Amino acid sequence: MEPRLTADLRAALVFILLLSAGSSDNDLDLRFCGTWRHDSGALSLNVNLSTGCSEISISAGRSSLSIDGQITARCSRSEVIPLKQLGLDSQEETPFCLHWEPLLDQLKLQVGGKNLSLCWPSSVQGHCCTDLSDGPNAPEANYGIINGTIKNDFITNKTREAYKFIAASIDCKTLCDQKIQEYTQVNVDPAVGNVQHPCAHSSEVDMKEGFRGRNVTAPATKGRPAESSTTVHLPPALKTAAKKTSKVVCTFFNKISLFQEGHKGNRLFNDVVGITVENEVIANLSEPIRIDFHHDVIPQHYSKKCVSWDTRKDPLLVNWLVDGCETREKGAKHTECLCNHLTYFSVLVQMEPRPVRHLLALTTITSLGCAVSVISCVAVFIFLCRKSRRSKEQSIPIHMGLVVSLGLLNLLFFFTGVLANVGGESLCVWVGASLHYTLLSSFTWMGVEVFHTFWMVYMVFSPSPKACVWNLVGFALPALPVIILAAVGDIYGVREVVPSDDVYNPYLMCWMKDTPKALLAHYFTNMTALAVLVISGLVMLFLVYRKIRIRDEWRQNGVAFLSIWGLSCLFGTSWGLTFLDFGPFSDFILFLSCILNAFQGFFLMLRFYMLDWMRKQAGGSTLGSTSTGSTRQHMLQAQEKS
């Protein structure tokens, strides 16, 4: 019995040793999450980081969240960061997460829905600070951290002042080899690459005298051919621009989560290149740096843009910009970036297929229509001014208001592309707001035309509102939403319209930005006003037709059609085609809507001159006036006859 017990103990001991040997892999990173309980006043983030490998502590109090310690290889930081810009002042509990990546020497904090990069990623260092374990418990407090978790493992629901994690140092290459073993399975992504790799690799280039440029290629990774590696060409101009040092470092990253932040609706390539010169900011190179990215085939309706991380504007937040970079497509699997500065670079893929079909043809038609409409509106305005001297028709001021707003709308739309390319974002804020105002003003005046027609048809014996009332409604009312949106901010600016046949050369215009906030404003103002206008206009056309179709003049050839067509120009019912841009006839609807709306000013001119010509042909009778302001006279005549 005793020998058997001894054998069982030996087997158990061997099993325990095997388990301990199997679990000896290092715990690579740290992800600590919790809820910060604080006051509702001004809050701040205190960061005090230094190089070394001992410990890191996360503490919280009434008004500040603090991160202190020594776990980084290269990153040192000591500052107080106000959190007012994150909108946390009105809250009393804020979730947060701290993520440490030792292989990248990267530390980031997620708080208030923002990802703050406390330590930027870098290449593999000599020693990594890892195996962080929970240290001694801090005392409980009224303000602090509750519901602390480590990688989804719950610690406690008590409010603690701080959490401390003790670290151990390990050789980074050993740790990197360990993680590579975990990434042996290749994950295929149809848009942005196919290999995961936890480590970054750096290459240092010494730009000696007579430097003529050099190519730096990323190390080949498993699952990808060597010729598909990212390549950087450093131009000779970089040597001239670097004043303090002759060494430049190229760091190649692959599938780093930090880089996938800072943009919505798009996706960044797996490969990211960081090019730096120590303690120098280099920009506006006379000869650009060339970066060749190799990738899987990307569908043609997805656009690709070379982007760089703007670390100077806000070093805490990831902000990818196209400024300073030019995109060149070298093939279905090859994109070349030409950039005139140093930072992190990659290619941004627009994942949502939203390019516009036949953009060049539509732009040409719109530009021609806007030019013709501006001239037509000027002619109609002069015509109405002369007519107002010899006629007291109450609809003339309303027609003049519509013509003025429509003329300004077409004038601004004609120049919006030029102004976007010349003036940029600062000018487009004003031009976009002005364009929005003229659009809403035009819709409002079309609505006034509908209401005035209803007044003449159904309120024959009631006096119409004075012209000053209509001017207040048509010109002042549309300014209110524009002023409110401008005060909110980040609504108006440069808007990119991507053509389906050339997604790399978008058309720029001054309008509402392509952001969720601007899109919401567009639907609440433009689309709502348009829906109300189109529905009321169609209803009014039907009511007018029923009311005066029995008159003898309407039974003559062409009079009924011209009258309804003339009213539809005033009511803006052609704008309703915007809601029909779907299905198999979408292209036809798109072109028809573009023609009718762009040439609306021209059609208005035809309407006024044709009706005036018909009136003269009829010898001054009411024949040519059935769809003008003299509709009131027809109604009065009908009442007298009855």
Care to describe what's here?
There is one protein chain. With 642 residues, the chain is α+β, with helices and mostly antiparallel strands. The chain is built from twelve helices and 26 strands. Strands 13, 16, 17, 18, 20, 21 and 24 form a seven-stranded antiparallel β-sheet that branches. A hairpin with a 2-residue loop joins strand 10 and strand 11. The N terminus and C terminus are likely disordered.
Offer a quick outline of the entry.
This protein is of the alpha+beta class.
Query: What percent of the residues sit in helical stretches (DSSP H or I)?
Result: 25-40%
- Radius of gyration over all CA atoms, rounded: 34 Å
Low-confidence stretches: 1-26, 184-197, 621-642
Beta content comes to 25-35%
Query: How far apart, in Å, are the first and last alpha carbons?
Result: 124 Å
Q: How can the largest sheet be summarized?
A: 7 strands, antiparallel
Number of strands: 26
Specify the overall morphology: elongated
Mean pLDDT, to the nearest integer, reads 79
Contiguous helical run count:
12
Described by its quaternary structure, the protein is single chain
Structural class: alpha+beta
Characteristics of this structure?
37% helix, single chain, six-stranded antiparallel β-sheet, 642 residues, elongated, 12 helices, disordered N terminus, 26 strands, disordered C terminus, alpha+beta, seven-stranded antiparallel β-sheet
